[in-house]
């Protein structure tokens, strides 16, 4: 793996194979209160699919399955992709991890990140 200063990975790499735990200089974990997160996800589903959420059975079923998963994400007993899986991975990385809340002002979150460089 070649090292570069200009890399931004915007997804969790929990399931990637290799030495990803040592590949980063900084990991930023973005959180949000469950109720707000679910409300935003429901709104996003409406914006994405509109009336098809009511008229297309496949879209309705897929959307409901996604929202069901999203509601269980914070349950430490849930065996799927969850906060526990992510927190376990965060504990395994060799670099600093900072946690920011996406409900905070963007400027504040950017400051928190830039302060580490």
Keywords:
P-loop_NTPase, Cytidylate_Kinase-2, globular, mainly alpha, 117 residues
Structural summary, described in words:
The chain is mostly helical and 117 residues long. The protein is built from five helices and two strands; from the N terminus they run E-H-H-H-H-E-H. It has helices spanning 34-49, 52-55, 57-72, 83-92, 106-114, and strands at residues 26-31, 96-101. It has a two-stranded parallel sheet with strand order 1-2. Helix 1 (34-49) packs antiparallel against helix 3 (57-72). The longest helix has 16 residues, at 34-49. The mean pLDDT is 89.
Average pLDDT reading: 89
Poorly predicted tracts of residues? none
Assess the beta-strand content as a share of residues: 5-15%
Helix content: 40-55%
Assembly state: single chain
Q: Walk across the major sheet and give the strand order.
A: 1-2
The number of helical segments is 5
Distance between the termini: 22 Å
3D shape: globular
Give the beta-strand count: 2
Please state the CA-atom Rg, rounded to the nearest Å: 17 Å
**How would you sum up the major sheet?**
2 strands, parallel
Order of helices and strands: EHHHHEH
Which class of secondary structure composition applies to the elements? mainly alpha
InterPro entries: Cytidylate_Kinase-2, P-loop_NTPase
